[in-house]
Amino acid sequence: MTKRIVVTGIGASTPLGGTAPETWQALLAKESGANTLTHEWAGMYDLPVNFAMEAKVRPSEVLERVETKRLDPNSQFALISAREAWKDAGAPDIDKTRLGVEFSTGIGGLWTLLDAWDTLREKGSRRVLPMTVPMLMPNAASAAVSMDLDARAFARTDVSACASSTEAIANAYDHLQAGYADMILAGGTESCVHPITLASFSSMQALSRRNDDPRAASRPYDIDRDGFVMGEGSATLVLETLEHALARGAKIYAEIAGGGVTSDSYHITAPDPEGRGASRAVLAALAQAGATVDDVTHINAHATSTPVGDIAEYRALHAVFGDRVKEIPVSATKGAHGHLLGGTGALEAMITVLAVQSRTAPPTINLDNQDPEIPLFVPTEPHALGDAPQLAISNSFGFGGHNAVVAIRSYDE
User: Mean pLDDT in the chain?
Assistant: First the structure.
């Protein structure tokens, strides 16, 4: 028997706000999280790109000093969003052996790793901190959340580049269906606004170079788009079975109706230009949701603002929905919050949860001249979805050919 899986808590720390409600309100207000970098290192390396979307609230403003000393920023953001989500879910007194964590990252503790390398070269091996490996490992965020909330069912880590946290949510859905836990904190995190990533992504011509106008740089679907803008932060969803949620009187935001995960097996960085793997992921998510393409009322697209990626996703969507795709409201929210890599899927799933709950598709900013090769319906103002039951999909695609999609349904008793 298929169980209904619901969202009962949300949390976030993003370039738009230090909490989930602040992020949502800034998104509806068409704000941008982009700014010119002011760090000393930003002018040291002759970087082609000197801006990014850093988290609006720094972890040091929220966490205890001992936590910022013992955790890489990657894990710090995870802890912040998970704590908010858990509190939002009511911090229930449940059997902790039935509470799981399914957290993700694309890169992990990059700052710790590269700082330790600098220390080794400049000061010698004896000065490398003993906590270096526990801080840099990709599962550090999942472990930190698990230990903080005493979640003992499992602490899993999903690492699938920019599809990581959407895959984590899809896997959490499956693990709740299988009965491995009663509640799961599913999310993603990333903190790698760092000269090495800015230099590398710039070298592959993936980043926008609008140094003179950062807030207009991330422009999904615009004819003048020239790459994505690096973001950082974290988002967490608390998932549980409907039966468990009702038994404890929890508030319910929406349902996770299904997930789909596929591989392109095409190229390490480029998507399949026809979007075949992506379209299969969409269809798999809808099949698990027991839905058809005609049921979908909203799409949160991956839409990174790269010339190649946006077109490939459009082709995938057209392959699934046909010409009806021109009528479905599509939100491309990376225009506002940037690309959080492994954390972006969880953030966009959270946004989609709020979209179906409020019956409002958030606007896409910086879309001044829509690419005629991408004839989607992309609202540039908050768009009412109507009072009828909603079914949305949230897409994420990552280097290595990873595709992950979750289907999210409005909760209508």
Answer: 97
